[in-house]
Design goal:
Mean pLDDT: 92
CATH architecture: 3-Layer(aba) Sandwich
Strand order of the largest sheet: 2-1-5-7-6
CATH superfamily: Uracil-DNA glycosylase-like domain
Number of strands: 7
CATH class: Alpha Beta
CATH topology: Uracil-DNA Glycosylase, subunit E
Order of helices and strands: HEHHEEEHEHHEEHH
Structural class: alpha/beta
């Protein structure tokens, strides 16, 4: 089993953490995934966005948020006045959890052991980047940092203190892509709410000297 660096012994840099995470075998997801999908972005970003896990395209390309949800995230960030290149983007779980449907790989929600196994990598990233603001995207990302009692519908868009940072939870962009009018979900309304949450996070950022 690959063990992350002891964060209390030293503060590792992102390149070292990325190299270690590439060989991670802390849970079974590595057995069928193409690769570990580590975070990307500035090493001292003021904003870190934490998603759930890689999707099919992310697993194949080795980078987070490069599929349809990533394109929608780019649109929302642009509407909120946040440059994606200024943010560090990662996931709570670094390997793709899926099932086959024919030849297609269908997303499966990560389970608690997967989140727990990946938590040291996420903590290492946050320690190295030291952002001002964390934006969690979706319930899995929120639960990974706030615990199992976190509820996205009740707590989204509400800033709270977390380990000397400010955390703002919001929905995952894939939820907007899956919006179903038959269930009373309007994609435009969901997008507007998502942008509003991003604006909350953006408004908390303070220029670094």
């Amino acid at each position: 089993m690959t063990e992350p660096l002891d964060l209390f012994a030293e503060a590792p840099d992102l390149d070292t953490i990325r190299e270690q995470a590439a060989a991670c075998t802390r849970c079974e997801l590595y057995e069928h995934s193409t690769q570990t999908v580590f975070g990307v972005g500035p090493t001292r970003a003021r904003l870190v966005m934490v998603g759930e896990q890689p999707g099919d395209q992310e697993d194949r390309q080795g980078a987070p948020f490069v599929g349809p949800a990533g394109r929608l995230l780019d649109q929302a960030l642009d509407a909120a006045g946040i440059a994606r290149d200024d943010a560090y983007v990662t996931n709570a779980v670094k390997h793709f959890n899926f099932r086959y449907q024919g030849k297609r790989r269908i997303h499966e929600t990560p389970k608690a052991p997967h989140i727990t196994a990946c938590r040291p990598w996420l903590e290492a990233e946050l320690a190295a980047v030291a952002p001002q603001v964390l934006l969690t995207l979706g319930a899995t990302a929120g639960k990974s940092l706030l615990g199992a009692k976190f509820r996205i519908t009740a707590e989204r868009g509400e800033p709270r203190s977390w380990n000397d940072m400010t955390l703002v939870p919001t929905i995952h962009p894939s939820a907007i892509l899956r919006a179903d009018r038959a269930r009373g979900q309007d994609r435009d309304e969901m997008m507007a709410g998502f942008v509003a949450d991003l604006e909350v996070a953006g408004g908390l950022l303070v220029a670094r000297g």
